[in-house]
Write a structure and sequence with these properties.
It is a single chain. Strand 5, helix 7 and strand 6 form a beta-alpha-beta unit. The chain is globular. The protein contains 16 helices and 12 strands.
């Protein structure tokens, strides 16, 4: 939370939590998916350092269930812990300030802080008394160490830099960082995306190619509405370098009337079915309807890309939990029909971040593994041009919550920035944003122009290497 990285201590906590969760499932009977029984450990026999025999204490199917249950327990605990830390961040930063000043704190110090105003106001007299008490007990030892160990002397300078960084935090308590999240140095907790049986690596930015099976798409005017053309276009995008295909049957541009679930299924299911029959590219279904998502996963999709607010959508959560599909939780206010009038924000980055955090907490509460979740700040959905720019500039901030998908391809705000009214002529702006976001940590970029985007990302990666 404070540095944007997974520290050594946090890694050990996650490791220990995973071991405890596995004991809860296998030894203590604390799980949902098994009857009351204990599972032994898988055992292997070694001879001269080589494995010569292996004994399976339970079946592969049971092993998968155990892994899923362990993942659920750890993910739920991680979500609760993250929420608690986020809610108390101001207090934690004040404690850090006092620790930097006095180097240690004990229970009495914390009690005094609480009495003096709930962590917020520590009087000068109290600070002085604490310093005197600490100086009497610890200062001689520290002074001795300082004189005898010159190697420790850079330490205060590092602390001073950290103190300045804390003081430069914005009003939401997130310290600014000049560090660029290079594309091939992803945060270790977001190394892959769990999409049913697939594990999509997130060690480099993935390109998601868009296939709109609609008659009224803003970007192509219904060019791929015909089934044959849609299938051919999907396979062409794969040839151009698409890592994922995103197939949708309902336009979400402002003011467009919704289509029925039956019509949406009629548009997308045949295309998904035919593409999966000839190619193993991962397929995402772009839908806001749980029934359509379930049908699409049944015929071959492994990702659900939902433009509607995810928190509270129990039906969609059930589909994702029961199928194990990957999930893109996007931020939006209202619906595509009325979102254009819902662009009032006091702090667009902070409010979008909070809504996405709620979506992740809701997913954990619904039994969805953290590894299934990707978030999308919803560029162009209930945001104006300035707000879209602010959200894109905060891409790295969003990556601290979960892997981030960015979808800006050919959108109106690019036309407003570049004075280009024709969507198909916004390729340069679209590619520029995709590359910039990838350089700042975006895990997936959703684009119409796959070939141009893939070329740009390949060249930038080569230069950065």
């Amino acid at each position: 939370m404070f540095t944007g990285d997974l520290s050594t201590g946090a890694r050990m906590d996650i490791k220990m939590a995973s071991e405890i969760a596995r004991k809860m499932v296998c030894a203590y009977g604390m799980r949902r998916c098994f009857r009351v029984q204990s599972f032994g450990d898988n055992q292997e026999t070694l001879f001269l350092g080589r494995e010569v025999a292996r004994h399976q204490a339970y079946s592969e199917a049971t092993a998968r269930k155990i892994d899923e249950e362990v993942d659920r327990l750890v993910s739920e605990a991680y979500a609760r812990a993250s929420q608690m830390l986020a809610e108390n961040r101001k207090r934690l930063e004040l404690l850090v300030e006092h620790l930097l000043e006095a180097e240690t704190m004990d229970g009495r110090d914390v009690e005094e802080l609480i009495k003096e105003g709930g962590f917020g106001t520590m009087t000068n007299a109290l600070l002085k008394s604490r310093r005197m008490r600490i100086r009497k007990t610890r200062r001689p030892l520290l002074t001795s160490l300082w004189r005898s160990l010159p190697m420790m002397r850079p330490y205060p300078r590092r602390m001073a830099r950290y103190r300045r960084r804390c003081r430069g935090s914005d009003e939401r308590g997130c310290a600014p960082s000049a560090r660029v999240n290079v594309m091939d140095e992803r945060s270790v907790q977001f190394r892959e995306w769990q999409c049913r049986e697939r594990r999509l690596p997130l060690t480099r930015p993935l390109v998601m190619g868009i296939v709109n099976v609609t008659p009224d798409s803003f970007s192509d005017g219904g060019k791929w509405f015909d089934e044959e053309r849609a299938v051919a276009h999907a396979l062409e995008l794969v040839e151009e370098g698409a890592d994922i295909l995103d197939i949708g049957g309902e336009s979400t541009q402002p003011g467009i009337a919704p289509v029925s679930e039956d019509e949406e299924c009629r548009r997308v299911l045949p295309v998904i079915r035919r593409v999966t029959a000839v190619n193993d590219v991962p397929i995402s279904v772009d839908t806001r309807n749980a029934a359509v998502a379930r049908e699409a996963v049944a015929v071959g999709a492994c990702i659900v890309n939902d433009v509607m607010p995810f928190a509270g959508d129990v039906a969609m959560a059930a589909v994702v939990r029961e199928t194990g599909a990957g999930m893109v939780a996007m931020h939006m206010r209202g619906t595509p029909q009325d979102m254009a009038g819902l662009t009032g924000y006091d702090d667009v980055v902070g409010e979008v971040e909070e809504e996405l955090r709620k979506a992740l907490v809701f997913a954990a509460e619904q039994g969805i593994a953290a590894g299934q979740m990707v978030i999308d700040p919803g560029i162009g959905f209930a945001k104006d041009t300035a707000q879209n720019v602010a959200l894109l500039a905060a891409t790295e901030r969003f990556t601290r919550l979960a892997p981030v998908l960015i979808g800006v391809s050919r959108k109106r705000f690019i036309g407003e920035l570049c004075n280009e009214p024709v969507p198909t002529e916004r390729v340069g702006g679209s590619v520029g944003i995709a590359v910039w976001c990838a350089m700042h940590g975006a895990a997936v970029v959703r684009v119409h122009d796959v070939k141009a985007t893939r070329q740009a990302l390949t060249v930038v990666q080569a230069l950065m290497a």
